[in-house]
Specification:
The chain is an alpha/beta fold. It has a single domain, classed as Alpha-Beta Barrel (TIM Barrel), CATH 3.20.20.70. The strands form two sheets. A six-stranded parallel sheet has the order 2-3-4-5-6-7. The chain has a three-stranded parallel sheet with strand order 8-1-9, covered by helices on one side. Helix 3 packs across helix 10, helix 5 runs parallel beside helix 6 and helix 6 packs parallel to helix 8. The longest helix has 19 residues. It is globular. The termini are far apart. The structure holds S-adenosylmethionine (SAM) and FE2/S2 (inorganic) cluster (FES). FE2/S2 (inorganic) cluster binds next to loops.
C-alpha cells in the first residue's frame, strides 16, 4: 500500500508536504487505493448505512454578494421566492411520511426572516416532529441568535468556512464578509452545543494546493461533526461565470482524505457532485461519504434555488428524489436508513 495512505489512516493526519504529494499525485490507482481505505474506515462506524437529510431551501433572497454564488444579491435575473411557515411545515410533513428524520432548512441570508420568526419556525417543527433533528444553514448570525435557535430546538448547523486562507477568501467574497467572522460563527456554534458542519468548494476560483492544505488543517483542528465538500460549478450570472469547475477526481480524493482524517465525520455526497457527474453521488459514497441530502423543497421553487448552473433534482417530486437515491445507493451495496443519523459522539 502507498506509505502515505497508510500513515494517514494510522495517524489521521499528515505533514503539509505529504498532503501536497497526495493532492498532486491524484492518479486513478491512488484514488482506488485511498477510497478502499476510506470506505473501510467509514464502515467501521456506519456499516453499509447511508444517512439521509431532507433539504428544504426556504428562501433564495440573500443580502450577501459572494462572487461565486448564483443567488447573490447582485444577480438581478434571479427569480426570488420565500416559503411561508405553513409551506415549510408542509415540506416537513411530506418528508416525515417519506421517512426523513432530519430536516435541513437552508437559505440565503434573508433579512425578512427575523430571529423571532426563525425561532417560531424551529419551535413549530420541534413540536410537531420531536423525533427529528433540525439542521439550520442560514449563514452568519450573532452568538445570541444561534443560542436562541438552539434553545428553540435546532440541533445542527451547516456553515462552510469556504476557504481558510485570508487572501483566497478576499477573492471569493466582497469586503463586507470576513474569514474572521466566519470562524467566530463556527466557534460560537460549537460552544453552544450544535453538531457543526463546515467545508469548502473544490476547485473554487483561484484555489491553490496550499489553500486546500490549509482547509484540511482547519477542518482537522475544528473537528466538526459534518463536512460538506463539493465541486465549485460556475453560474452564468456571477462574476465567475467563466471560471473552470472543480473536478470529480479532485473532489473524490479530498472526500477520501477527510474520511481518513476524521473517521467518524458525517460527510455528504453532495448534489453538486451529482451535477458534475451522473454517478457523482454513488462515487462520493464509494470514496468515503455516508450522507445524501435529497431535495424536499416544493417542485415549483427548486429551479430558483440555483447556486450554480444545471443543478440536478430540480424537476423531481420529493418522493421520486428519495426513491431515486435509495435505488442508487442499493446499486452500490448501500442502504438508506430512516433515522436521525447523528454523529456517534453527539446525540443531542
Ligand atoms: N447562506 C448560507 C451560507 O452562506 O452558509 C447557506 C446557503 S449557501 C448557498 C450554501 C453553500 O453553497 C455555500 O456554503 C457554498 O459553498 C455553496 N455554493 C454556492 N455557490 C456555489 C457554486 N457556484 N458551486 C458550488 N457550490 C456553491
Ligand atoms: Fe448568499 Fe450565496 S451569496 S447564499
Amino acid at each position: 500500500m502507498n506509505e502515505l495512505i497508510k500513515k494517514l489512516e494510522e495517524q489521521q493526519n499528515l505533514k503539509s508536504d505529504e498532503m501536497k504529494w497526495l493532492l498532486e499525485n491524484n492518479t486513478p490507482e491512488l484514488r482506488q487505493e485511498i477510497s478502499l481505505r476510506a470506505r473501510a474506515v467509514a464502515e467501521q462506524t456506519y456499516g453499509k448505512d447511508v444517512y439521509t437529510r431532507g433539504l428544504i431551501e426556504f428562501t433564495n433572497y440573500c443580502k450577501n454578494d459572494c462572487y461565486y454564488c448564483g443567488i447573490r444579491k447582485s444577480n438581478a435575473q434571479a427569480h426570488r421566492y420565500r416559503l411561508s411557515q405553513t409551506e415549510i411545515m408542509a415540506c416537513c410533513k411530506t418528508g416525515h411520511e417519506l421517512g426523513f428524520r432530519t430536516f435541513v432548512l437552508q437559505g440565503g441570508e434573508d433579512p425578512a426572516f427575523k430571529d423571532d420568526q426563525m425561532v417560531e419556525i424551529v419551535r413549530g417543527i420541534r413540536k410537531e416532529y420531536p423525533d427529528c433533528a433540525i439542521t439550520l444553514s442560514i449563514g452568519e448570525k450573532s452568538r445570541e441568535s444561534y443560542q436562541a435557535f438552539f434553545e428553540a430546538g435546532a440541533n445542527r448547523y451547516l456553515l462552510r468556512h469556504e476557504t481558510a486562507t485570508e487572501e483566497h477568501y478576499r477573492k471569493l467574497h466582497p469586503r463586507a464578509l470576513s474569514l474572521r467572522n466566519r470562524k467566530r460563527c463556527l466557534k460560537d456554534l460549537k460552544e453552544i452545543g450544535y453538531q457543526v458542519g463546515t467545508g469548502f468548494m473544490v476547485g473554487s476560483p483561484h484555489q491553490t494546493v496550499e489553500n486546500i492544505i490549509a482547509d484540511l488543517c482547519f477542518i482537522k483542528e475544528l473537528n466538526p461533526e459534518m463536512i460538506g465538500i463539493g465541486p465549485f460549478i460556475p453560474h452564468q450570472q456571477t462574476p465567475y461565470q467563466d471560471a473552470r469547475p472543480g473536478t470529480l477526481e479532485e473532489t473524490l480524493l479530498i472526500i477520501s482524505i477527510l474520511r481518513l482524517m476524521l473517521p467518524k465525520a458525517l460527510i455528504p455526497a453532495t448534489t453538486a457532485l451529482g451535477t458534475i457527474d451522473p454517478e457523482g453521488r454513488e462515487l462520493g459514497i464509494l470514496a468515503g461519504a455516508n450522507v445524501v441530502m435529497p431535495n424536499l423543497s416544493p417542485v415549483e421553487v427548486r429551479k430558483d434555488y440555483a447556486l450554480y448552473d444545471n443543478k440536478i433534482c430540480t424537476g423531481d417530486e420529493a418522493a421520486e428524489c428519495r426513491v431515486c437515491l435509495s435505488r442508487r445507493m442499493e446499486s452500490i451495496g448501500y442502504e438508506i436508513v430512516n433515522n436521525r443519523g447523528d454523529h456517534p459522539n453527539k446525540k443531542s
